[in-house]
Write a structure and sequence with these properties.
Elements: E1 11-18, E2 24-31, E3 37-43, E4 50-52, E5 58-60, H1 63-74, H2 81-98, E6 102-104, H3 105-119, H4 121-131, H5 137-147, H6 153-157
Parallel strand pairs: 4-6
Antiparallel strand pairs: 1-2, 2-3, 4-5
Helix pairs in contact: 1-2, 1-4, 2-3, 3-4, 4-5
């Protein structure tokens, strides 16, 4: 494993821990050259469905892209990295378990919003505002009313 600080390939593993589900190994490493520590994650590479984008193009499922969107939504919120990664793991596992060869990007977005609504309401609204591309404040307010159970778009989406 290459050191992210100095680029050296010489390092040692200080600690290895399995995540609860046993599908990921977290390794704490120390570079032999610069002596800085860094963390790596090992996971089994599994075949995921292709994602059908809104414009009809297809691309490989990208966990990093999913996690990036979740992180942006959770920025400055009391949501740990472990919770965000757990959410991404559950979304990824859900679509793997379906066994489909292709999945619509809308289905991914809706599932992420559902999971975010359970995790942090503010993060949910942030994600929804980007995902649903609100054009004005009224659409934003409608989503919040739905989240609060007062009707609107979010009421049928967040709870499903």
């Amino acid at each position: 494993m290459r050191c992210p600080y100095c680029g050296s390939m010489d390092n040692k593993v200080l600690d290895s821990r399995y995540r609860r589900d046993g599908n990921v190994v977290r390794r704490r490493r120390e570079c032999d050259k610069c002596l800085r520590r860094f963390t790596t994650y090992e996971r089994v590479e599994e075949v995921l469905p292709l994602v059908i984008k809104k414009d009809g193009t297809r691309q490989a499922f990208d966990r990093k892209k999913l996690l990036s969107g979740v992180r942006r939504a959770c920025e400055k919120r009391p949501v740990s990295i472990e919770e965000m990664e757990g959410l991404a793991d559950r979304v990824e596992q859900h679509f793997q378990d379906l066994g489909e060869r292709e999945i619509d990007s809308q289905a991914i977005g809706e599932l992420v919003m559902q999971r975010l609504a359970e995790l942090d309401k503010v993060a949910y609204v942030r994600f929804a505002s980007v995902y649903r591309d609100f054009q004005d404040v009224n659409e934003f307010m409608e989503e919040i009313r739905g989240l609060l159970g007062e009707g609107g778009r979010g009421s049928d989406k967040a709870g499903s």
